[in-house]
Amino acid sequence: MNQNLIDLTSQIVDDCLQGNSIDCVILGYGNQQLKILLLQWKYSQEWTLPGGFIKKDEDMDNAAYRILEERTGLRSVFLNQFYTFGSSERSHENGVFQAKRKEKLQKILETENPGFIDWIQKRFITTGYFALVDIAKAKPHPDYLSETCEWKPVDSLPGLIMDHRAIVDKALEHLRIQLNYLPIGISLLPNKFTMLDLQKLYEGILLKPLERSNFQRKMLNLGIFNRHEKQLTGAANKAPYLYSFDKDAYHKLIEKGIGFTY
Amino acid sequence: MNQNLIDLTSQIVDDCLQGNSIDCVILGYGNQQLKILLLQWKYSQEWTLPGGFIKKDEDMDNAAYRILEERTGLRSVFLNQFYTFGSSERSHENGVFQAKRKEKLQKILETENPGFIDWIQKRFITTGYFALVDIAKAKPHPDYLSETCEWKPVDSLPGLIMDHRAIVDKALEHLRIQLNYLPIGISLLPNKFTMLDLQKLYEGILLKPLERSNFQRKMLNLGIFNRHEKQLTGAANKAPYLYSFDKDAYHKLIEKGIGFTY
User: Which of A133, A260, B61, B87 is deepest in the core (most CB within 10 A)?
Assistant: First the structure.
C-alpha cells in the first residue's frame, strides 16, 4: 500500500474531467538524432507518452502546458495541439476495458484503489500536443505510474501502449506538413549548430536522406542564419562552420511563409 | 409538450458520451461566394454551427460523418478534423452554465426535459471538423433544435452562439495554411467553372483580393486543369473559358505538394 499514490489518484478522480486526456509528443534533438521523451511504466516496463488529465476548471491548453512542465521542468516553450484521437476502440476492445491493463494498473499502483481504476476504465478521447524543446534545458521527471522518463531516438522507438505509436506518427506527419510552409529548428537546436545538425534534424522529421549541397543551398538562401567565424585550432580548416538563427529574419519568414504563394 | 423531442433528447442522454461534442464547418461555393452551412435555433433565432454528440460505441470520426449526412444528405465527402476547443469557459462563465442558455433550451424544447438539460449543462470539449461540399448536391436539413438550415456567405456571417465564430475562424485559418502546400477546389466547385470562380473561391478563403493575371498564370502552370471549348453563341467571344479539373494530374499534385521542398 502506498498512501501517496492513493491520495494522488483519488485527487485525479475528484479534480479532473472524466473521458478526456492529453498526450504529449515532446521532441528534442541531440547527438544528430531526433528524439522523443517517453515514460516507462513500473512493473510492466511498457513505454508510454507523457500524458495526463484536464482539471474541471482548467483550459485544455493549460493542462497540456502543466503536463509538459511536470515532465520536463520547461515552461513557455512551443506547444502545439495537433490532433484528437477519438476511436471507440483506443482504450477498449469491443467496448470492454482490457482486463490485462486493469491488472497492470493495480500492480503499478500497489493497491486496487477501486475509485481510480473505475474512473479510468471509461472511454477516453485524447488530444495530442507536440512540443519542440532543447534537450539540454529539459529535466525529465517520471510520473506516478512510471519508473523512468527518457529520450529515445525516433527512428528506433520501443513498442508503445495503446495507440501511442499512432499518436507519434500523426505528430511527425503534422510536423512534416509544416515543413512545406515553415522553417523550423529554432526551438530544437542549440544556439550554435552546423548545417549537418540542421540536415540531420530535417532528415529525422522527413524520414528520408537529403542531398547535402542542395539542402544547404536552399536553407542558406532563406537568409535566416548568421555564420560564425571558425575557431582557430589546429584542425580549424576541417571544422564545419557554426551557424545560429537570425531571430528577426526567422520570425519575419515565419510570418510570410515559404510555401506556394497566390 | 412535444413527445418526439422528449424521446430524442432522452435517447441522446442514454446513448452519447457526456462532455464531448462535434461541430462541423461545412463550406460550399456558389454565386461566386464562399458559404457556410448554419442552423437557426427555434425561439431565440440564434445561429449555430451544425453539431452533435458522439455515441458511446461510435468512433469520433464516424460521428462527424453521421452529423454531416444528417444535415446535408451527403456521404463520403471530404471531411477533416482541424482542432479541438477545450477552453473551460466555452460553455460556462466562471464555471456556471449560462442561465439564459438554459432558459432558451427549455423554450426550444417546449419542455423542461430535466434529464437532457442537466446532461448538457456539463462542460463540453468540442472537436471541429470541416467539409468542402458541392452546394448543388447538398440538401440542408435542420436539426431538432432548429427552424432553418441555410448557406450564409462567409464574409458576412450573422452572430453565432458561444465560441462558434472562433471555430469558423480556426477552420478558415487551417484551410489557408493548406493552400500553402496543396491545391484545393475539386470538392467545392461544380464540374465546369471559370478561372474567375476559382479566384473568387481562393479570395474567399484567403480573405484578400488577388491579382487576376498573376493568379491565373500560377494556377494554369500547375497543370491540373482541362480547358473546354467555348460554346458558339452570339456572345461567345466574350464568354470566359470553362475549365474542369484533370483528376489524375490533380491527385498526383496533391501527393507531391506545391510547397517548399527539401
Answer: A133
Q: B260 and A259: CB-CB below 8 Å?
A: yes
Nearest to A134 by CA among A174, A76, A221, A55: A76
The CA distance from A197 to A203, in Å, is 10
Q: Which residues, at least 6 apart from B149, have a Cβ–Cβ distance to it below 8 Å? A: B37, B38, B39, B40, B50, B71, B140, B141, B142, B143
Write out chain B residues lying below 8 Å of A17, CB-based: 19, 123, 125
Which of B30, B164, B4, B135 lies closest to B73 in space, CA to CA? Answer: B135
Residue A107: pLDDT band with limits 50, 70, 90? confident
What residue has cell string 440538401?
A: B139
Cα nearest neighbour of B127 on chain A: A84
**Which pLDDT score is estimated for A95?**
53
Is residue B187 within 8 Å of residue B77, measured between CB atoms?
Answer: yes
pLDDT of residue A186: 86
Inter-chain contact A86–B218, Cβ cutoff 8 Å? no
Helix B195-206 to helix B212-221 angle, to the nearest 10 degrees?
A: 100
Residue A140's CB: how many other CB atoms inside 10 A? 18
Contacts of B170 in chain A (CB under 8 A): none
Instruction: Map A158-209 to HEC letters.
Output: CCECCCHHHHHHHHHHHHHHHCCCCCCCCCCCCCCECHHHHHHHHHHHHCCC
Residue B95 has pLDDT above 60, yes or no: no
Instruction: Give the single-character DSSP code of B160.
Output: B
Give the pLDDT confidence of B159-173 residue by residue, as tens digits.
Answer: 999 999 999 999 999
Closest CB from A56, A95, A127 relative to B86: A127
Produce one character per residue of B154-184: b if its CB has 16 or more CB atoms within 10 Å, e if not: beeeeebbbbbeebbebbbebbbbbbbbbbb
The answer to whether the CB atoms of B218 and A262 lie below 8 A apart is yes
pTM above 0.80, yes or no: yes
User: What is the ipTM, given to two decimal places?
Assistant: 0.90
Q: Using CB atoms within 10 A of its CB, is residue A228 exposed (0-12), middle (13-18) or buried (19+)?
A: exposed
CA distance linking residue B76 with residue B66, whole number of Å:
10
Interchain pair B262, A206: CB under 8 A: yes
- Indicate the range of A56-60, A112-116, B24-28 predicted with least confidence: A112-116
Distance of alpha carbon A24 from alpha carbon A120, whole angstroms: 18
Nearest-CA neighbor of B181 among A173, A233, A221?
Answer: A173
Over residues A160-186, mean pLDDT: 91
Cβ neighbours of B61 in A, within 8 Å: 86-87
